[in-house]
Amino acid sequence: MADMATADTTPPHATIYHNQRCSTSRTVLKLIEDAGIEPTIVKYLDTPPSRDGLRKLLDDAGLKPSQAIRRKEAVYTELGLAQASEDELLDAMTENPILIERPIVVTDKGTVLARPAASVSTIL
């Protein structure tokens, strides 16, 4: 019989790189909260990750910058990023955080770019 005193009652932790103007980001935040988790919310447009921090997030999610960049943003076209290298894309995302696809969610179970929103369930 399992000893209940040794059961881990620490609530799970999550960090969401969030843009409150994005409906998918708001949906994912609600899914996290509905799972009983009070996440750390990083408003990445206000406090963007460093280049190394963004590289780690993408590596942890198994993504290349080209898989996590918002191509529909005007700045993507303005900067002529269609033929850019992965390093150039990472630099552009660091300098222009609006280019970072969202939301990125980190938990003890992993890191995902939660698009579609329901994909966040794989790490909750």
UniProtKB/TrEMBL annotation:
GO molecular function, one term: arsenate reductase (glutaredoxin) activity
InterPro entries in the cross-refs: Arsenate_reductase (IPR006659), Arsenate_reductase-like (IPR006660), Thioredoxin-like_sf (IPR036249)
E.C. no: 1.20.4.1
CDD domains: ArsC_ArsC
UniProt keyword terms in alphabetical order: Oxidoreductase
PROSITE patterns, per database record: ARSC
Protein name according to UniProt: arsenate reductase (glutathione/glutaredoxin)
KW Oxidoreductase (keyword) present: yes
Membership in a protein family: Belongs to the ArsC family.
